[in-house]
């Protein structure tokens, strides 16, 4: 009987430590990741702007459904692996150099945006992806820290390069 009490005390302590660490991490974060590929900015932009085509090349995305525009902006329901579903709104689109997408869901433990900046280079493009996020749940903040805050950005950029038959060096 004592060992059951000790295990319960240990588990409660472990959960308490996890919450304490999560609360100590910042709720608001900004991360930028960059790749260089041998494609013209217009080609890269066209691929990124084609939201419905993303499941063909993005390893984490399963499907995209178009929604009615949100305040005149393109809106989609995106389903990711693990059955995570998000409403994504294209807030800014300036071909071929600038694209901003934000989460349109209010009842989720995190929110944020991805901003793509596509700069021409003599032999292709430099693509910078900046994520601004707010994670209200301390447990989700801890999970992001443990699993890597740029994991999905890195996968996304690697998949983008791979679509063009290239290997991305992510910086």
Would you spell out the secondary-structure blueprint of this structure?
Layout: H1 2-24, E1 28-37, H2 41-49, E2 61-70, E3 73-80, E4 84-94, E5 98-103, E6 110-121, E7 124-135, H3 138-147, H4 151-163
Helix pairs in contact: 1-3
Structure summary:
This protein is of the alpha+beta class and 171 residues long. The protein has helices at 2-24, 41-49, 138-147, 151-163, and strands at 28-37, 61-70, 73-80, 84-94, 98-103, 110-121, 124-135. A hairpin with a 2-residue loop joins β2 and β3.
Question: Can you walk through the features of this model?
Answer:
The protein has helices at residues 2-24, 41-49, 138-147, 151-163; strands spanning 28-37, 61-70, 73-80, 84-94, 98-103, 110-121, 124-135. The protein has 171 residues and is α+β, with helices and mostly antiparallel strands. The model has no long low-confidence stretch (mean pLDDT 92).
Structure keywords:
171 residues; alpha+beta; Alpha-D-Glucose-1,6-Bisphosphate, Chain A, domain 4; 4 helices; elongated
CATH superfamily: START domain
Helix content: 25-40%
Number of domains: 1
Strand segment tally: 7
Binned strand content: 35-45%
CATH A-level architecture: 2-Layer Sandwich
Coarse morphology? elongated
Radius of gyration: 19 Å
Give the terminus-to-terminus CA distance. Answer: 53 Å
Quickly count the helices.
4
Low-confidence runs of at least 5 consecutive residues: none
């Amino acid at each position: 009987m004592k060992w059951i009490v000790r295990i319960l005390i240990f588990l409660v302590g472990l959960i308490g430590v996890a919450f304490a660490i999560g609360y100590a991490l910042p709720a608001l974060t900004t991360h930028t990741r960059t790749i260089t590929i041998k494609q013209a900015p217009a080609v890269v932009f066209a691929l990124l702007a084609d939201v419905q085509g993303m499941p063909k090349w993005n390893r984490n995305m399963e499907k995209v459904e178009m929604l009615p525009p949100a305040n005149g902006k393109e809106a989609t329901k995106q389903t990711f692996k693990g059955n995570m579903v998000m409403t994504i709104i294209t807030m800014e689109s300036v071909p071929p150099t600038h694209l901003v997408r934000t989460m349109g869901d209010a009842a989720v433990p995190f929110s944020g945006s991805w901003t793509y900046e596509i700069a021409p280079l003599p032999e292709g493009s430099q693509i910078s992806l900046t994520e601004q996020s707010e994670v209200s749940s301390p447990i989700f903040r801890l999970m992001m820290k443990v699993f890597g805050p740029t994991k999905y950005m890195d996968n996304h950029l690697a998949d983008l390069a791979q679509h063009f038959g290239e290997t991305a060096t992510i910086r």
